[in-house]
Amino acid sequence: YPSEFLMQKITEDNQVPVHLHVSVSLQYVAGLKGRALVEFFHSNIAEVENEELRHLMWSSVLFYKTPNVEVMACVLLSTKAIYFLLDDSFIHADEHQSDFWNKENSDCENSSFHLSCCFVLKLNDLQSVNVGLFDQYFRITGHSADHIVTCLTRDSYNTHTFIQQLMAVLSLLARTPSPEPVDKDFYSEFGSKNTGKMENYELIHSSRVKFIYPNEEEIGDLAFLVAEMDGLTNLPSLNILLYVLAFQVNHVEGSAQNTSSLQPKTLILTSSDLFLFDEDYISYPLPDFAKEPPKRDKYQLADGRRIRDLDRVLMGYQTYPQALTFVFDDVQNQDLMQNLTLDHFGE
């Protein structure tokens, strides 16, 4: 162990997306090849001796406890667990994480060591996997709020490959069979249908882990939301042509070199409009233990423009990821109208 084919595959997958910045510790991991990568896994990450590394993927991740902090991670799938090797900047990103991440090695910060946190989700604790719309992301759910992670692959191929590898590894697990179903009484039988939760397509794996895929209702809800934004009354005339997780580029001027920050956005193209949404990728559908709905809606409109106002599209010539600049000719008139409204008609 391991086979040459597997080592070659893991080496090929060990590439950080060029548009995302990672810390020095993760750059070191990204520089490892073949056997060195497998040895690094066994000596630094693996929890038991007979564990096998099966798949490696670089992805942005979100945690249920910190839904606003997207962090880069190296995701390692073994025959025992899923490991998320995290960028060390994540520890300092949010003060409210002290109960979630216990930072014990703060005395090492000024030394030559580069620390990374590793979040471990044992396969035996895995309960369900929710696949997002058009395979742009997936959410892994364990038995508590600490064990819910969303991987924002922004790539249907990476999502599909990881899910296939995960199913293959789960097939190796020996789990006790499910208990016999209990006869339901009248109230529980009819009460459970009024929870308000949307029924999605479910595939229950032999390991009893649920793989949940979106159904037509999710697209229908999204189309209805977009139609409301657009003021359309004739819903059948609205078509969602494209749904993609992207980044909005905000140029930060005045710094040493004009850098650009990337804001995660959901881009939705319809037959008449282009929308940017701030989407909650981690809170929906609600986990079973959630006592109350999330603080924000699943989709929050960030920007929306009419296609007929689109003047031109500028395309960069670099390889993936492709940068697109949309130039609209309605901005000036729109601002003028808003200012007039504010000045002359009060709030």
From TrEMBL:
Domain Nischarin C-terminal PH span(s) in chain numbering: 240-346
Compartment(s): Cytoplasm
Pfam family, any one: PH_PLEKHM2
The UniProt record lists the keyword Metal-binding: no
Subcellular location, principal: cytoplasm
GO molecular function, one term: kinesin binding
Domain PLEKHM2 PH: 114-178
Assigned GO CC terms: endosome membrane
Alphabetical UniProt keywords: Cytoplasm
Superkingdom as given in the UniProt entry: Eukaryota
InterPro entries reported for this sequence: PH_domain-containing_M2, PH_NISCH_C, PH_PLEKHM2
GO BP terms: Golgi organization; lysosome localization; regulation of protein localization
The protein's name in its UniProt record: NISCH protein
